[in-house]
Each structure stands twice: as structure tokens, then as C-alpha cells.
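Example 9 (inverse folding). The structure is encoded as follows.
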């Protein structure tokens, strides 16, 4: 993914604190087609605002089956079917239950759109377990780890075929701090890490206090915090942590940039 880029389409919590959009990342590798990691309900608004051509997106990776990470699917589908008249296949990767969840959601919102669709949706359901080297479509390999949030939660690590271990992008999705998170981060160039609050609140989410205390356990060159509130960003700005920055909606980051 050298010289690729990542656009943070939504960086907020399920409550859209401080007006932040719902979770979604657009990754544009140097080689191969663009893909999404999660598609929360505000995803298409962000894609339109950033003037992104969603017809170039060929894959969606879902970190877990919560609405703030996947409820934008019917609206992405609506754009692909109606505005772009898509013909090429579209691939979706996620935990067990992804197909039923997304198909039910799309049918509930736009059942008539399903009848007009002229492209194949290929679902690839992944075990909530540690796996490595999974085929994630042309040019991509995928590693997965179970995260501590919901029974469907998986952390994702993606890389271009043939790239060195340091040229990896890892995305935690929602999670509390756990050993699997630390293992996933090892050797990555960029870790997108959830950080829901400044101080501890619930054990299925990470707080900034934990990041400050445990950053040494994350062997990632760069850490970008998302799924956050403005309080987290302001606290980190006042008292920075080496290698760590906070994301904001619309932020574009080169996959090769140093923090």
C-alpha cells in the first residue's frame, strides 16, 4: 500500500458526539481498487461531501455487526444500483451473520432496489478468530483477530500482496484493550485505534488514559485514534503522546506519512 491514502469518512461514536460522523474509512491503495472499512449511517453523506466516486469502491470490510458500523449499507447500495448502474461484482467481508444482517437491512430499507440490482454481491464471512494470509480480493491479504467488544468483533489487518510486514494497515474496530489488539498491532505501519473517552467508562471501549499508559505495548509506527469525542482530541492536543494523533471527519492521511 505504499503511497496509498486513507480518508476518515466518519470518526465519531454511535451517538455522533460533537457532530462527528459514524465510523467509516476509505482506503485507496497505490495498486488495486479502493475499499471501505465499515459503513456507518453517515457514510454516503461523507462520500458525497468529499466528492468521492463510490463506483470505484469494490470491497467493504465490516469489523462487527453494530449499526454505527454498517447501517450505511442500504444507501451505498442505492447509489451503486441507481446512480452508477453498477455491473461489476462487489465483495463484502465480515464476521458470521454479515450476509443475513446486510441483506435484511437492505430489504427493509429498499427492497425494490434489490430487484433492480445488476451486479453480484459476494459475501465472505470470516471466523471471529486469529487468521492470517486470507485472500481479500485482487492485490490484498487479510489477517484477523477477535476483539473484546461484541461476539462478532474482529480486528482487521490488510496488506498488499508481497509487501513487508511494516507496510500494513490495522483497524481495531470497537474494542476494549486486550492481548489480541497488541498482537494485531505488532509490526504495523499504521494502526487505526478506537478511543471512545478520555477516562475509563466501559471495558468494551478504550480510553485515552489507557493509551497513555500502554502505548509502549503497541508496536505500530503510527497510531490514529477514532470513534472519539472532541474531548479526547483536545486532551491529546494539550498533552501529546508520541506516535499518536486523533482523526477528524474528512482527514486524509498518506499511508506513508510519518506522525
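The amino acid assigned to each position is listed next.
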Amino acid at each position: 500500500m505504499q503511497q496509498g491514502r486513507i480518508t476518515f469518512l466518519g470518526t465519531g461514536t454511535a451517538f455522533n458526539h460533537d457532530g462527528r460522523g459514524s465510523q467509516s474509512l476509505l482506503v485507496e491503495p497505490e495498486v488495486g481498487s479502493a475499499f471501505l472499512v465499515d459503513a456507518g449511517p453517515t457514510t454516503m453523506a461523507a462520500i458525497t461531501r468529499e466528492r468521492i466516486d463510490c463506483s470505484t469502491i469494490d470491497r467493504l470490510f465490516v469489523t462487527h455487526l453494530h449499526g454505527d458500523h454498517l447501517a450505511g449499507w442500504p444507501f451505498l447500495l442505492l447509489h451503486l444500483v441507481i446512480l452508477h448502474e453498477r455491473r461489476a461484482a462487489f465483495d463484502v467481508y465480515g464476521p458470521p451473520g454479515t450476509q443475513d444482517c446486510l441483506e435484511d437491512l437492505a430489504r427493509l430499507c429498499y427492497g425494490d432496489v434489490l430487484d433492480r440490482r445488476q451486479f453480484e454481491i459476494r459475501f465472505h464471512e470470516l471466523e471471529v478468530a486469529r487468521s492470517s494470509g486470507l485472500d481479500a480480493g485482487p492485490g490484498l491479504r487479510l489477517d484477523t483477530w477477535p476483539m473484546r467488544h461484541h461476539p462478532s468483533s474482529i480486528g482487521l489487518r490488510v496488506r498488499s500482496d508481497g509487501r513487508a510486514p511494516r507496510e500494513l494497515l490495522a483497524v481495531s474496530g470497537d474494542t476494549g484493550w486486550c492481548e489480541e489488539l497488541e498482537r494485531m498491532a505488532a509490526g504495523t505501519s499504521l494502526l487505526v485505534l478506537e478511543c471512545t473517552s478520555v477516562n475509563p467508562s466501559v471495558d468494551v471501549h478504550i480510553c485515552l488514559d489507557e493509551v497513555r499508559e500502554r502505548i509502549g505495548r503497541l508496536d505500530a509506527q503510527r497510531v490514529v485514534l477514532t470513534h472519539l469525542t472532541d474531548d479526547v482530541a483536545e486532551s491529546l492536543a494539550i498533552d501529546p503522546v508520541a506516535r499518536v494523533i486523533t482523526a477528524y471527519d474528512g482527514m486524509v492521511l498518506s499511508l506513508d506519512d510519518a506522525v
